[in-house]
Input
Amino acid sequence: YSGSTTIEGGTISTPTYRSVRLWMGDMTINGGNFEGQVWVQAVDNSAKLTITDGSFAPRGVDGSSVFVGNITDTGVLKDVELNVIDGNFATKIGANNAEAVKGDKIVGGTFTEAAKNGTNAALLGTCCVFIENADGTYGVKAGKYVADCAKKPSGTSVRLEAEGEKKAFVTPSKLLGSLWESKKPVMPSLSC
Output
């Protein structure tokens, strides 16, 4: 697909392959069931995918529900913008170069544990973390966070405070531990 389109609902089913493929232009998914991978790959240096709702099933070659292909077969980096505002993801959101993906990235949605564990942290929006929901799924939350020292260098302690849910054990110069949300580790590093 090339151009501009909006998908409002329905079911697109290609269980053993891709349900939707965006080559260039922009696509907004406001709902629907996608049984097969949603694939975005810029061929002309610009593609934009925005997901505001929908259910995404695992069918990608790499095990992802949604995949951003922003590097060509010859190693050329292309601009791909990803904006995930909401939706239900059975498996990870993947990319062949997560650090180079543009846009707001993942700022919302509901993820299974497998999807949370497989999604590269570089695809999360600025200051976003996965949080565990009461039903065992994971959501995404942005905010400011609290950091405490795990080790006190030479008897000195450091406590950085701000509102939010993310906590980490740090010294002034180095991250020492894991981030904690309600005493459960949720991310390997502190980014905010």
Q: What stands out?
A: The two ends are 37 Å apart (CA to CA). The first strand starts at residue 2 and ends at 7. Residues 149 and 170 are 5 Å apart (CA to CA). DSSP finds one helix and 19 strands in the chain.
